[in-house]
UniProtKB/TrEMBL annotation:
GO terms for molecular function: zinc ion binding. PROSITE patterns: ZF_MYND_1 (PS01360), ZF_MYND_2 (PS50865). This is MYND-type domain-containing protein. Residues 142-185 form the MYND-type domain. InterPro entries: Mito_gene_expr_regulator (IPR052839), Znf_MYND (IPR002893). It holds the Pfam family zf-MYND. It comes from Agrocybe pediades. Keywords: Metal-binding, Zinc, Zinc-finger.
Length: 195
């Protein structure tokens, strides 16, 4: 149990999705402790893997197809198993919070939890409030500079040649982001695009 298997599914409009398999080493001091692994895994997904799982495709809102700026990450973990696992669902949205698109995803997540044996109905996840006046970068934008101009359909972004997941607008942006991305790149085992 030295690694955790993470299966990530990113969803966009018209049933488009990306399926990403990640094999990440568990820190030695956490091995064998299910609760520590679960907490570490949640932080890993939300703070370390998040840029790579968000800025990787020409994403529109999963519900209304408008350009996506926000994401709803839902993670299920099975860290008590001999081979710890996590499944991450990334829903690309035009807007989070009380927006009808986000509310549709929250309702979907609650329905899935209610149908899952041993889980049952869940309280809605706490949503971090977006600071007033802040606009998040487009999900379709370059993983480094995140300029809106790089998130348009005519922008010619190139994927990382090794992992085939993240996208950059230029060699300069890829080189600048490499110290951050290389920590994830080597653990991405497969990427499959659907639709």
């Amino acid at each position: 149990m030295s690694e955790i298997i993470i299966e990530a599914f990113g969803y966009g409009p018209r049933e488009s999705r990306v399926e990403v398999s990640i094999l990440y080493p568990i820190p030695e001091n956490m091995r064998g402790n299910s609760n520590l692994i679960k907490s570490w895994c949640m932080d890993l997904v939300l703070f370390t893997l998040q840029p790579d799982l968000k800025h990787n495709g020409s994403w529109g809102c999963e519900i209304c197809s408008k350009p996506a700026r926000e994401t709803n990450f839902t993670t299920a973990t099975w860290t008590h198993l001999p081979q710890p696992r996590a499944v991450v669902y990334i829903h690309h949205l035009c807007e989070a919070g009380e927006n009808p698109c986000n509310q549709a995803i929250i309702a979907q997540n609650q329905m899935m939890a209610a149908m899952t044996p041993g889980i049952g109905p869940q309280a809605p996840a706490k949503i971090r409030e977006k600071p007033e006046g802040v606009e998040f970068p487009l999900s379709a934008s370059c993983c480094n500079c995140k300029k809106d101009s790089t998130g348009t359909p005519d922008a010619r972004l190139r994927r990382c040649a090794r992992c085939k997941l993240v996208r950059y607008c230029s060699t300069e942006c890829q080189v600048t982001d490499w110290p951050r991305h290389k920590q994830n790149c080597k653990h991405i085992k497969s990427v499959k695009w659907v639709n």
